[in-house]
């Protein structure tokens, strides 16, 4: 369709943004750009789609390598962000984000723990942040609603998203929790933020922390129905190491016996015949993922049983 007189056709060049996740010391980490000056806010590897890029994914890989020195492996499209003024620079910027999973060694690139970004998401060790810091601040915000209906709606959102009252903590609601804190002005990225002594994690540039929250939520949700954890594990591992990684991703503790029974019943792994003493104590048997896991990648029923922490 040709624009009529007086009308202007604007073509926006999309920005490509990478959420690359790796496991370092059993803790999920996110790759950040090393091109920022010291003292700048953390930002994800990103850059505009250029005419020389044969595809958006190729452009993404190019920007990640330029800004971090890391060559992407597994990658999938995550989400497209196009909210007005989402970068704080005015106008509209369209960002196409991708989720990448890697077994990169910690010395390759610059990494930040996703629990440094979202400390409340680690319900194994940081659940008190919700009770001591966030719950009072959120309920104070809810009480500022303009009507009884709005106050009730805000209070319900706080309770459901953060597992308060009779509601259970749902690991997948990472994005909803961050966006609620943003709306309530409790994170520094928010335009309504008022500095206060709350443990709300490390700030990122633009809306990159929101994009990371989307990636964390996607990875947690995918772990419910397919064994994506194998993309993050070394070729050989102990069942204890596997459990620690699963707990790191979900932010919840798993029952040891139930976890091992589940892994055995699902036939996800097989013994290699070798052992290791790296874990201390008696030699631990080494396992690897079965070939079928690598081939199919869509096995049903791979939700790992966890111990409820709230």
Structural commentary:
The protein is α+β, with helices and mostly antiparallel strands and 310 residues long. The chain has 3 domains: 15-115, Nucleoside Triphosphate Pyrophosphohydrolase (Alpha-Beta Complex); 125-197, no CATH class; 227-296, Winged helix-like DNA-binding domain superfamily/Winged helix DNA-binding domain (Arc Repressor Mutant, subunit A, Orthogonal Bundle). It is 33% helix and 17% strand. The protein contains 9 helices and 8 strands. A hairpin with a 7-residue loop joins β7 and β8. α3 (127-142) runs antiparallel to α4.
Q: Which terms would index this structure?
A:
alpha+beta; Arc Repressor Mutant, subunit A; 8 strands; Nucleoside Triphosphate Pyrophosphohydrolase; 310 residues; two-stranded antiparallel ribbon
Kindly estimate the percentage of residues that lie in beta strands according to DSSP: 15-25%
Number of domains: 3
* Global structural class: alpha+beta
- SSE run: EEEHEEEHHHHHHHEEH
Superfamily (CATH H level) name of the largest domain? Nucleoside Triphosphate Pyrophosphohydrolase
What is the radius of gyration? 21 Å
